[in-house]
Amino acid sequence: xxxxxxxxxxxxxxxxxxxxxxxxxxxxxxxxxxxxxxxxxxxxxxxxxxxxxxxxxxxxxxxxxxxxxxxxxxxxxxxxxxxxxxxxxxxxxxxxxxxxxxxxxxxxxxxxxxxxxxxxxxxxxxxxxxxxxxxxxxxxxxxxxxxxxxxxxxxxxxxxxxxxxxxxxxxxxxxxxxxxxxxxxxxxxxxxxxxxxxxxxxxxxxxxxxxxxxxxxxxxxxxxxxxxxxxxxxxxxxxxxxxxxxxxxxxxxxxxxxxxxxxxxxxxxxxxxxxxxxxxxxxxxxxxxxxxxxxxxxxxxxxxxxxxxxxxxxxxxxxxxxxxxxxxxxxxxxxxxxxxxxxxxxxxxxxxxxxxxxxxxxxxxxxxxxxxxxxxxxxxxxxxxxxxxxxxxxxxxxxxxxxxxxxxxxxxxxxxxxxxxxxxxxxxxxxxxxxxxxxxxxxxxxxxxxxxxxxxxxxxxxxxxxxxxxxxxxxxxxxx
Length: 480
Fold this sequence. Notes:
Order of helices and strands: HHEEEEHEEHEEHHHEEHEHHHEHHEEEEE
Helix content: 25-40%
Number of helices: 13
Radius of gyration: 23 Å
Low-confidence stretches: none
Distance between the termini: 26 Å
Number of strands: 17
Structural class: alpha+beta
Largest sheet: 6 strands, mixed
């Protein structure tokens, strides 16, 4: 079959099934969602007058959070409002059962498979522009040194005043593009975004001093026109996406600390010390850089910053190599009194996921734990239930990555079909019993070495030739 004749949406659906997902919503969940809505009981704080805004991907419709900031004598007061999904999706409901099984929205590029019915995740529980919504507000004050203080969490009524995009806001903040029309129309919004950016820089600098890793990686994005793949390109983080990332990290730390201080069991997001640290030490030595024998995030970050300065053109390759050697994160259940498990890459000692309840079940669970704590109610989950949820979220997240990688390869196979025989610069990203995998630089596409793979290890750079592509099977074959 010709690569361009492959039914990519059908393949995405089959990938979901093959990896244990249920791509079609159960009938009872669809019926339930039709009448579900947020509960806005009397007495909620009304913060709809604030100049809230959201910044997300151009195509995002499931808006989980909005932001607002103001300058105070103590620092920059930042409010992150997270959609109150729990108020429309009660624990034990049909929608909740489906979300608990799937645990995550899967973005397969050619098609999105939502964790929640779309009439909820993209409408009634999405913080859409111009709509009043109930939210969980995480409030924190960012000091001049980037420290976070004066933390509090509460529910409130909010209204997104401007739905913005990473591409538009990022280019403007970096001085590489004009103001997005909504920003140009409002001097107050311009000042608001500049203040948010200032707070984000303070947060990032503080984390950097603690050893948070400064990555630069290109995420592959298909160019789709009228349902047909016309190409692929790498998307890198910009100032706007980093702003949101910094705020989300801070909000998630505040949430984790609040739950710990409340003495309740919770779900944490951790990244353990890298098992392949010796390989990182070896790679660092190639650059004339010394890493200590034991994992040290501050030392590793110093290496990353040095390589970014010395060779910015190839820094994305270095970032990708370190990410692959670090390994994925995982969810763990944390009981009161447990030793704190940290997040190696973020240099965070107390961290959870709480800012995306429309698309991650762990975040929805965390929201329920927080609301029970604030309302002085018993935890809605037993320790055993949290253990099971954490384990399932980790497994499903891994399965979702496999679906996404498979579909990215299929899309890339279509886009690269006309370039067979060409030579590309590449870096080794995986050495497994199934084979050796490399990622070419431009476009940032991963494939398997079918010839000349002997002796290669993660981080090695080489020139490879594109031998073959097969979109139906998701194969991209390289050799040398």
